[in-house]
Amino acid sequence: MASRAPGPGLLGTRLRHLLDRLDGDVAAVYEDLGLRGFRPRFTPIIRALASTGPSSIRDLAKAIGVTHSAASQTVAHMVKADLLLLAPGEDARQRIAYLTAKADALLPTLDAEWTATTAAAVELEAELSFPLSRLVDEALDALHRRPMRQRIADAAPHLVKHPRGGDAPAETARS
Predict the structure, then answer these.
(1) What is the rounded CA–CA span in Å between residue 116 and residue 145?
(2) Can you give the CATH number for the domain in which 88 is found?
(3) 131-168 pLDDT, tens per residue?
(4) What domain range includes position 76?
């Protein structure tokens, strides 16, 4: 195995590699099940809709813990794959997602895969010195409290023009 840089220096790169390994193997299981082109990120949306019924994209994003943008992109892919239908919501900005018959037919297979993948994740966590799911939750909470951009700005203020998301630098000298 190639050596890896210890510590936080290549954290983003290493996290992407970890996610690629996890998602790649789950995608391979979908291929084994005959679900060619089915993406791991589709399953949480299908399961959420199967559980709650038709939902807005905003509500789906909240239910599965992703941004509205990420949910919207995934839903668009799922519409193209004939897994979801979209209908107008209560106002012009809202779209409601519905499972198609094709998605409904996949539910037993996806439930079995979800159960097996959850068991595999529990086994993986048992091999680690700290549960990965708990660490991910803690990291997301910490970044919600103080985003990485702000942390970089605090470490090197000269690198970040607008660390607090405004139009002006966070600290400006006034005469």
Answers:
(1) 34
(2) 1.10.10.10
(3) 999 999 999 999 999 999 999 999 999 998 875 554 33
(4) 11-103
